[in-house]
Amino acid sequence: MSEKNLEDILKRVDQLEITKETSILSLINSLKNAGFNAKRLALACEIYNEMINDEECIKFFGLAGALVPAGMQRVVHDFIKEGFIDILVTTGANLTHDLAEALGYHHLQGGAINLNDLNDSDLHKAEMNRIYDVFMPNKVYEGIEDFISNLKIPDPQMSVSSFLRFLGKALPKDSQSILKICEQKEVPIFCPAFTDSGLALQLGFHNQKINLNHFKDMLEMVNLAWDAKKAGVCFLGGGVPKNFILQSLQFCPNSAMYAIQITMDRPEPGGLSGATLREAISWGKVNENAKYSTVISDATIALPIILWFLKESQRKKKI
């Protein structure tokens, strides 16, 4: 490629300026002309907004890890409340911690504590569990156990998603939980690795005959993907939630036309959490003409910004 052709293709990097008039919309618009992950975050915001405005697009959301302890429960809740998620696939950890908050328990932050000064043996003796710089007392699990042990399971062989809908309905009406808002908005929650969680352990301990059907969920997910005229995906992290969505799209006529990934993982080890969205094109999971953006960022930083942008964009659209 000649130097002249490069000059025609390459654009100038604009130097970001923050003023008292700067809004979230103008900030993201400015970041489009920046570099590195600032530009990719702006692109992710635009792609997600386009997904929302595309009435034919079904929005699949993969939520890995345990973001609720870090304070992201209400952020995910509002994504669902605002109609920005049509199908949620998540980990049992997120649901366990979401249930804890819904029952009135809270996660604790380390504040000014220097993590290097912490003695995890002392935390264990004090029955205090640590998630990096967030803490959760053992009594939280005791409260979850009390709640779970009193549930009257209507069908011990129901699908996991059906159980999670039943669980959401059992929570207080004023709960700001993910489980509750999904039940209210009729957004299905799939948790393909449900047994890998404290919530499932408590459920199994107190319901020895329970055998939730994972295959019903697998087939239902494929049906939802198959019926989608257009599919859009957003992944926080990767792992099982990301694969559960993508494997369903792989066997459907329509691959994802919109794709967003927020991760801190690298592709070189071959794990799905760091795998690029471009790689998914080779599998037929993401369309070769898709609009996509991978943001290398902590999701606790990027996700609230995306929600803020989407809320303001949709508000402006209604004016």
What does it look like?
The chain is of the alpha/beta class and 319 residues long. It has a domain of 179 residues: Deoxyhypusine synthase (Deoxyhypusine Synthase, 3-Layer(aba) Sandwich), CATH 3.40.910.10. Helices cover 47% and strands 15% of the residues. The chain has 14 helices and 9 strands. The chain has a 6-stranded parallel sheet with strand order 6-2-1-7-8-9, with helices on both faces. Strands 3-5-4 form a 3-stranded antiparallel sheet. Helix 12 links the parallel strand 7 and strand 8. Helix 3 packs across helix 14 and helix 8 crosses helix 9. The longest helix is centred in the last third of the chain and has 20 residues. The model has no long low-confidence stretch (mean pLDDT 94).
Walk me through the topology.
Blueprint: H1 3-9, H2 24-31, H3 36-53, E1 57-63, H4 73-81, E2 87-90, H5 92-102, E3 108-109, H6 120-125, E4 128-131, E5 134-137, H7 139-149, H8 160-170, H9 178-185, E6 189-190, H10 198-206, H11 214-227, E7 230-236, H12 239-250, E8 256-263, H13 277-283, E9 286-296, H14 299-318
Parallel strand pairs: 1-2, 1-7, 2-6, 7-8, 8-9
Antiparallel strand pairs: 3-5, 4-5
